[in-house]
Design a protein that fits this description.
The chain has 2 helices and no strands. It is mainly α. The longest helix has 28 residues.
């Protein structure tokens, strides 16, 4: 294969990627996912959420005891 065929294959994949992204955005707009972006951003700040305290943590790895 020469360089022209590689460029054509890359162009086809780029077009398919762009088409998939455009279809995903169209679906999101049609289903109302893009109407109120601030509501989703503010939903993580509830009254129950403590300000300034870390509430997330990775679980500690348990070490096996050697007998």
């Amino acid at each position: 294969m020469d360089w022209g065929q590689y460029i054509l294959i890359g162009f086809v994949f780029a077009c398919l990627f762009f088409l998939g992204a455009a279809l995903a955005l169209h679906w999101a707009h049609r289903h109302g996912q893009l109407t109120n972006l601030e509501k989703g951003a503010q939903s993580i700040f509830d009254e129950d959420e403590p300000m300034g305290e870390i509430t997330d943590a990775f679980p500690r790895k348990r070490r096996k005891k050697k007998n």
